[in-house]
């Protein structure tokens, strides 16, 4: 089963998206802030991370940099999720090490396509 780490501090978002992902057959781990996200990723080695960028204690940009800078987590794909839709936000997320970016509110089918694409890229020879 594919494990996704969802790093998000908003309870409503956690409930809604994690339930939809579970219905699609994913095992979902949840971290409530960037520090917990980094710790959980290092401990659990998920197949993919959904990272909110506007997090307390350690924001998503910093958490992505830490994960991509560590040998044991650098190959885990990260999709940045953000309500920040200003010009340059996508580029800033990618520069921080995220592999993809999606704006909130989440269009679930579009997000699934990005997840599938990144997981296929990861398993390609």
General description of the model:
It comes from Microvirga terrae. This is Response regulator. The chain has 125 residues and is of the alpha/beta class. It has helices at 11-23, 34-44, 60-69, 89-95, 108-123, and strands at residues 3-7, 27-31, 48-52, 78-82, 100-103. The protein has a single domain, classed as Rossmann fold (3-Layer(aba) Sandwich). The chain is built from 5 helices and 5 strands. It starts with a strand and ends with a helix. The model has no long low-confidence stretch (mean pLDDT 94).
How does the SSE layout of this entry go?
Layout: E1 3-7, H1 11-23, E2 27-31, H2 34-44, E3 48-52, H3 60-69, E4 78-82, H4 89-95, E5 100-103, H5 108-123
Parallel strand pairs: 1-2, 1-3, 3-4, 4-5
What are the secondary-structure elements, in order, as H or E? Answer: EHEHEHEHEH
CATH architecture: 3-Layer(aba) Sandwich
- Strand content bin: 15-25%
Shape: globular
Q: Over the alpha carbons, how many angstroms does the gyration radius reach?
A: 13 Å
Q: Look at the structure and name the CATH superfamily.
A: Response regulator
Tally the helices: what do you get? 5
Number of strands: 5
Low-confidence stretches: none
CATH fold name, please? Rossmann fold
**Helix proportion:** 40-55%
Structural class: alpha/beta
Strand ordering within the main sheet: 2-1-3-4-5
User: How many structural domains?
Assistant: 1
Assign the CATH class: Alpha Beta
| Gap between N and C termini | 20 Å
Q: Major β-sheet, in short?
A: 5 strands, parallel
Average pLDDT level: 94
What tags apply to this protein structure?
alpha/beta; Rossmann fold; 5 strands
């Amino acid at each position: 089963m594919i494990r996704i780490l969802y790093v998000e501090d908003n309870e409503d978002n956690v409930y809604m998206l994690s339930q939809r992902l579970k219905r699609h057959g994913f095992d979902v781990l949840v971290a409530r802030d960037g520090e917990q996200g980094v710790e959980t990723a290092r401990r659990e080695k998920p197949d993919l991370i959904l990272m909110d960028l506007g997090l307390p204690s350690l924001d998503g940009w910093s958490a992505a940099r830490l994960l991509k800078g560590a040998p044991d987590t650098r190959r885990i794909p990260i999709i940045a999720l953000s309500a920040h839709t200003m010009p340059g936000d996508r580029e800033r997320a990618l520069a921080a090490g995220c592999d993809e970016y999606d704006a909130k509110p989440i269009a679930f089918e579009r997000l699934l396509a990005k997840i599938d694409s990144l997981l296929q890229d990861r398993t390609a020879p």
